[in-house]
Amino acid sequence: MQTLLESILTAGFAYSILRVTTPVLFAALGAVVSDLAGVINIALEGIMLTAAFTGVVVSALTQNAWLGLLAAIASGILMALILGYFSLKLKTDIILAGIALNLAASGGTVFLLYVVAHDKGVSSSLASKVLPQVKLPLLHHVPVLGPIFSDQHVLVYASLLSVLLLWYFLYRTPLGLRVRAVGENPHAAESVGLDVRRIQFIALGVSGLLAALGGAHLSMGYVSWFARDMTAGRGFIGLAAAALGGRTPGGAFLASLFFGFVEAFSNYLQSLRVPSEFVQMTPYLATVLGLAIYARQQMVRLARLGRKG
User: Fold this and answer.
1) Hey, which residues does 134 pair with through a beta bridge?
2) What is the pTM of this model?
3) Residue 1: is its pLDDT beyond 70?
4) By Cβ atoms counted within 10 A, which residue in 38, 89, 103, 233 is the most buried?
5) Chain mean position to CA 246
């Protein structure tokens, strides 16, 4: 136990928590903005997978990581708008439409990978690029904080900045107020002249953008290649983190940190003599536990409201 604690209570372990939290945090923030607009984005998993694939392919073809990132973002926004078209325009059930997009992304990326590179599982033949790591000039030499926060991948800093930007967008801008108003009561929002469908499309677009950044981090930062179903449920974990965090950017950040800690801990367990099956199920076990805590919180909140009523 002492060896385990000594390994966890290190700057290197904290560094890895931030690294593995990033894709879940992006997905959770995407879930927050779409949930607040009243259009749950169940396609986050497929959006992340499509963005991860697009970033690798475009960066390999152009030999430019930033163009790969832009293409990944564009693919994520497009996927989210397709979900909006089916659910808001054609009135398809948004859950079923999201599941369909997730399945299409899972099979479609493998098919397109074979078409582009004749690889079936991993993009090993593509010379894709990765986004840079950033050394923070002043913080880099500070003990403890420097090894944790400096020299992280650029999208790690982007994810932390996104928490603040999304909070400002939702609670300090007129459009953010409209997004929340539409999610609270679309009929009341429409009665005062708001274009509900347009605002929900915007929220889905922002959600797709954030999820795409998470996918790009996986294939252009976390690793330097694309692999079949490499998101491994992180989009769904992001949905759980958004719910556990009370649909707020700050709450989603804390919940994502919890899931990041569990994933980093499971990665550490791989170096010990722990069965791999147990290690692989650890993040999902934590997700179930988190949802159980969320359900308990909701029951307590509803009980209090009932007593007041």
Assistant:
1) 152
2) 0.91
3) no
4) 38
5) 16
